[in-house]
Design brief:
Belongs to the TRAFAC class myosin-kinesin ATPase superfamily. Myosin family. By secondary structure, the protein is α+β, with helices and mostly antiparallel strands. It contains 40 helices and 24 strands. Helix 6 packs antiparallel against helix 14, helix 17 runs antiparallel to helix 18 and helix 34 packs antiparallel against helix 39. The N and C termini lie far apart (134 Å).
Amino acid sequence: MTSFCLFLCFQGDYVWLDHKTGREFDVPVGAVVKLCDSGQIQVLDDEGQEHWIFPQNATNIKPMHPTSIHGVQDMIRLGDLNEAGILRNLLIRYNEHVIYTYTGSILVAVNPYQLLPIYTADHIRLYTNKKIGEMPPHIFAIADNCYFNMQRNNKDQCCIISGESGAGKTESTKLILQFLAAISGQHSWIEQQVLEATPILEAFGNAKTIRNDNSSRFGKYIDIHFNKRGAIEGAKIEQYLLEKSRVCRQAPDERNYHVFYCMLKGMAPEMKAKLGLGLATDYSYLTMGNCTECDGRNDLREYSSILSAMKVLMFTETEIWEISKLLAAILHMGNLRFEARTYDNLDACVVVRSPDLVTAASLMEVEPKDVMVCLTTRTLITRGESVTTPLSMNQGLDVRDAFVKGIYGRLFVWIVDKINAAIYRPPSCESSLIRRSMGLLDIFGFENFFVNSFEQLCINFANENLQQFFVRHVFKLEQKEYNLEDISWQHIEFTDNQDALDMIANKPMNIISLIDEESKFPKGTDATMLYKLNSQHKLNCNYIPPKNSYETQFGIQHFAGVVHYESRGFLEKNRDSLHTDIIQLVHSSRNKFIKQIFQADVAMGVETRKRSPTLSSQFKRSLEMLMRTLSVCQPFFVRCIKPNELKKPMLFDRELCIRQLRYSGMMETIRIRRAGYPIRYSFAEFVDRYRVLMPGIKPSHLQEDLRGTCQQILTARLGKHEDWQIGKTKIFLKDQHDMQLEIDRDKAITNKVILIQKSVRGLQARKNFLRLRSAVTVLQKAWRGYQCRKKYRIMKTGFLRLQAVCRSRKYYRSYRKTRLRVTLLQARCRGFLVRQAFARHLRAVLTIQAYTRGMIGRRLCQRLRAELQRRLQAERQRLAEEEQLRNQMTMRRAKAEAERKHQERLVQLAQQQEEREREVKEEARKKKELLEQMEREKDQPVDHSDMVDRMFGFLGDSGPLPNQDGQAPTGFEDLERSACAEEEEVLGEGLRLPEEEEEDLSQFKFSKFAATYFQGVSTHTYIRRALKQPLLFHEDEGDQLAALAVWITVLRFMGDLPEPKCQLVINDGSEKIPVMTKIYETLGKRTYKRELQELQVEEEVRWPDVQKRNSVRHKLVSLTLKRKSKITEEVARRLTEGGDYALQGNSMLEERPTSNLEKLHFIIGNGILRPTLRCVTFTSLKETLEI
């Protein structure tokens, strides 16, 4: 412990350490005492640095209030009400990953530069219908209070999100939209459309800057409309001052708008090829900042999100393609190269012809030479005459950039209008309900770059207006109302930026008006504009003139600090007009989309364009309308703080943060929120809302002393000594008072509701009791009657069962007697019948046995007789041989020799007998096996392919070589003849008819028929190749093609035409369409059905019904299709029942091999069964058979 300082310090105490460096944004830092020894103090500050405090520097430390040690959720409760206390409170919470802090109802949000898990659906449910202060600070709490204040007070709300570029304004806006879409509870299509508008606007209006990876380069005000139930029913988006110059140039380490990089990453290669696109590094407009990649952004995934969002917002495929064409044209225009020339002592330039010029012109659907003329010359119209002057190279580049900026700016406006057309629902004139709205303002933050131009002046001018609105709402109006209500109040000093705002835009001869005036002069330049600004405002303390006449910069003291602006290019950007040549080029385009976005410029005349409003005047008018819109709403403020310039998480730059807190007036805001009364009600509103807290208080319109009633309620609920005040017409409360009153009101209303519910439930219970008692009485009466009836039915059933049992026993005894007699009779009858049948069967068996034995005996007798005859013959032969041999040898030897031969003949006869018996047995066995095989094959399906191959195998196989005949099928082997015999045989010679039936057939020669009827050069001789045209004339094209198909099929069937080896793929082209396809296209099913019907009618007339089954068609079908064929039943039914005659088996002409069965079906189905092709088929077969 030491006591040399003004207070006692102990180890572990927290103190304020003031370094007293004298810098503008240097404030005391928090520190903790580590050591107190020998009159010296060692402290460790919040930045982790150690310091020794000596006795002579004892005034550098001060004690810290306990509220500043661990931080508070609402900075109004800070004990150290200074900049150091505010800064340390934000630092402590930021290090704990708590980025939100309240200042009364104002939310301070520090950008974490990382994704925190505090935006889930559970957090949305936690913050729904909660008042500020009930839950920890959160952006959802502001959105919830904004939403429910709109419903409770029936007044429009607005949420103003402000801060520097990169502070997180855009992300806060998206989070509020997400919360509103979730709590509205409808999950409708319009809510999805409102949410999907954000990725489109970010893609076309946001870019990477040195301070922010997703910086909004335009301002937007989203006005969300709600119906009476609180559901989103529409929205409208207003856009302000798109930074069009970013399309043409970017600062180092910055990128162009996101959409260009997303398109080049995510577009399909074939679409990029149509647009002539490549990589981002190939385009000058995308590489000026030497940065084509952005950490943390996935351009490929973002492009998919953009396309899906466009589809949700009703962008058509054509519109998306036209937008892509214009974006691609902008990139190609940026790659145009200019070369300086001199004509007639005048500086001129030419555009070097390149593929980019041709591509850009084709995408805009204009002529390349027109683009070159537009970019290198300017047409001036004076007194009805046009004069064309050349442009220098710098002027040509400026014209190109102006054209590109004009395209992109108007395209962005068209996209915003397209989104509004999808999400905006205009109020119905017939509806008497007034819908409420909630506005979200996400506008560019205060900017101060190394080089600041006209865009930065407009952006900072908008921020000056927003700061003045904040000052006016928080300080001016509040203190003015306190004075008017005559309540006890101590005036609070605050920084007012009204003087700077007057100098920029409000007072006469302000900066905006001087820039506009100079822009309208034809000879006005940036130098003359700067001279007028200096001469008019050099004495204003908020204006900083150039140091000398050679400088082109001037400065303005803004609320956030001094900003120096480069005056060069001010007038050209302010005019924001396109030359007549560019408008004429657009007018000559064949692209309707580019004409549509330039519609207002094309419709405007030359003189009208000269008098068109400047960009600053348009922006000023838009800001005035925005301020009027905000002034009629109840505002909520979100102050976004950027913790560091490096866009890194968990890095807190003290000087940067204190500068933002200081120029935003956060210190004065905390003071006025602590001393002020943000909640105020009129007497009537207070009585009507909180009279439920005091029993016996009447409504406001029945009260005479409203002030006394209000005081009575406040005294009873808040106490006399609480810090609330009553003015002349209003009640003034603190935030905690309002929250306490609302909680008490909710409890009182809940109690009353419970009382009402209790009474209603009691009434309902009594009604239910009486109804139940009456019902129970009826039930008891009915039940008792039911029980009596039930007992009666049981007794009656018992007696009936007793009667039944007695009767059944009586009938059972009678039945058994009758059954016994019948059984005996049946046994006698059946025995008689069995004996009779047995006797009949026995006689039949005896007869069969007798006949069989007789047949066997006769066969045996015949066999024995034959054997006897053979033996007798052998004996006679022996005797004859013996008689013959006696002449040659002795009698004994002759007898022995004859006996020997006789024995040999007997043995031979025995062998022959055995051989015959074996043959008989083998024949019986084969017959048995054949019968068994026939039984097995009876139920098996017939394979027609094998059947046809067996029957027509002699035609040869279906190999690639013709004229290779095979072996004749089984049963036709006797028809095979030698080759020499075939040459001698006369082909075509039929069976000779009886002499009396012969007639002269010379006039019916086939050669004469061929010469008479064949087409072209066809003769009666047989050829082994495909025909170019049918042999006979056919009127129908389908018949002609079918005739050619039948001829090719016959050639392949006969083996004269080789089968194709593989199937060929036919490309497009009408001349390469398969013949069968043409046949199918030409011949319809109805034609052949009609021909079939005519044929059937003729047959009915010609033949009786009995002979229809023997028709040629029925025979052919019966020959080709069996019941168990593998061909589908549908084909069989059509051919058998006379169905469709359409061509079958188009594979005959397709380039693939086919079986003989398919060929046979094709010939029969298309060549024989079709009447128009029968002659052709018979002719083809005639030629084939004559070979």
